[in-house]
């Protein structure tokens, strides 16, 4: 059965390390590899106008101002509390500002070939009967909205078995000791003697030790196929959910925006404009603590 073309031709995208990145004979040569743009016909623009009503924040009392000031002074080792206790407040001016936060939850999808050692495990693959689904036809949902997360899903009907190219299907390859099963002693440089002419106690005067790489076998187990000699290649769908946030502060009289980002916030209202877009309106009171931090 022919595989539908999703806008990518595998033969046009040959790479130098083909055995490392792609199978030798991909079962889905015309399948879309890499970034997968969604079908724009399925994207619906949703606009909901929600009126926002703001109420004035109650002004701080003289007792609250002194409490904040005392708390600030207590955090400084060289500040005294007597001036605060004797402080006489003549005039207080309140100022309010608003922070607007827009959060857009985006989803991107891309595909890539991956492999795992094949040790005769059961494979369900209907590639000869059914074509693999389009990347955006595979259902997937985030575990939690507006939280960055990544989901990996195996694309059905894309499995194929191939010989491991690194070990040529043997499951192991010749060790760097060239099947000598020993290696020169590092401490005596193979002489068997130390600096004073005595036998090297690391190699017992032999000048060599058992090869640690192959454990005295002459061959090293292929780490790519885990000694199986074969690999199962399949297409993997990588789904990335990302929360994109942008903040804006309304005009303030005397406090810079970078200071406002560190103050405690009071959630005033939250507006959900669509499933993937929400705007949060946060109202905060400017207290004496914020002035002192500035």
Structure commentary:
The protein has helices spanning 18-21, 62-74, 82-86, 257-260, 288-293, and strands spanning 34-35, 95-117, 149-154, 160-163, 172-174, 182-184, 208-210, 219-221, 230-249, 266-272, 277-286. The strands form 3 sheets. Strands 1, 2, 3, 4, 9, 10 and 11 form a 7-stranded antiparallel β-sheet that branches. By secondary structure, it is mainly β. It is 11% helix and 29% strand. The protein is built from 5 helices and 11 strands.
Structure characteristics:
mainly beta, two-stranded antiparallel ribbon, 29% strand
What's the layout of helices and strands?
Blueprint: H1 18-21, E1 34-35, H2 62-74, H3 82-86, E2 95-117, E3 149-154, E4 160-163, E5 172-174, E6 182-184, E7 208-210, E8 219-221, E9 230-249, H4 257-260, E10 266-272, E11 277-286, H5 288-293
Antiparallel strand pairs: 1-2, 2-9, 2-11, 3-9, 4-9, 5-8, 6-7, 10-11
